[in-house]
Amino acid sequence: MIRAPSERAMPDDRALLALAERLADEAASIIREIRSRGFETEIKSDRSPVTEADRAAERHILAGLRAATPDIPAIGEEEVAAGVETAVAPIYWLVDPLDGTREFAAGREDFTVNIGLVRDGRAVLGAVALPAYHQLYGGIVGVGATRTDAGGKVGIKAVSPGAEGLRVLASRHYADDPRLKAWLGGRKVASVGNIGSAAKFVRVAEGAADFYPRLGPTMEWDTAAPQAVVEAAGGRVLDEQGAILQYGKPGWRNPPFMCCGRHDGDDAAS
Ligand SMILES: Nc1ncnc2c1ncn2[C@@H]1O[C@H](COP(=O)(O)O)[C@@H](OP(=O)(O)O)[C@H]1O
Ligand SMILES: [Mg+2]
């Protein structure tokens, strides 16, 4: 069930989320179509991969955001990679048209479309689509989070870890990082899974995982939308000092962070 809006939600946040969800869903269809007919993978100057699907999805999303909200700057991963510079503003969209490109290019299913809105340095709402799973997540911090799939739209909530221990999800690409053990700090671990992309965040948001530690680098477009979904579902995304991950940092780079579900003692209504 979707909770009633709290005072923290701005009046038009529901319309902004509906826009982000629609564009993420349309981008997911574009990506599925390119995936089914085949594509080439190129290597960008930062040595990360990019495909026709990343570019087509970003073009569609940025055009839709700019048409509907011309006063809100929209920053996209592929435009930034191509040298387009945009300054930090009080409010802006952050778009990762295909997060987990390596997984997508390898034929795996853990890749996402992320469209997040940042206001005053905080991720306030976002949409995350998982095209291969036909799933769409959306959330407004302080209001609630939902998952839409073939079965319809349902409210989702992060959960507290069970007695059997933490269900940990981490990146495929930093699975052997020795710092992971230190971050777990002796906490009991029930399972450790490795998947790509922002899929890790939404699994925490829907209560299917408890902890996503991120030791390796990420960019702000990787995290804005999924952080909003996690926080809207009652979880948190914290830096190493325990502060909520903020936006508008130099070069759009994130520090290490941890994404957690609900803690025992958290306000059950948050
Ligand atoms: N060396 C690096 N510098 C900056 N970001 C990096 C990076 N290595 C990985 N990432 C980010 O991590 C994302 C993948 O996360 P994961 O490892 O959890 O699948 C990538 O998203 P893209 O696939 O959109 O490029 C990329 O933005
Ligand atoms: Mg990404």
TrEMBL record:
Biological processes annotated in GO: 3'-phosphoadenosine 5'-phosphosulfate metabolic process; phosphatidylinositol phosphate biosynthetic process; sulfate assimilation
Location(s) in or outside the cell: Cell inner membrane
Pfam families: Inositol_P
Reactions performed catalytically: adenosine 3',5'-bisphosphate + H2O = AMP + phosphate
Record-listed Mg(2+) 1 binding positions: E77, D96, L98, D99, D222
GO cellular component: plasma membrane
Identification of the protein by name: 3'(2'),5'-bisphosphate nucleotidase CysQ
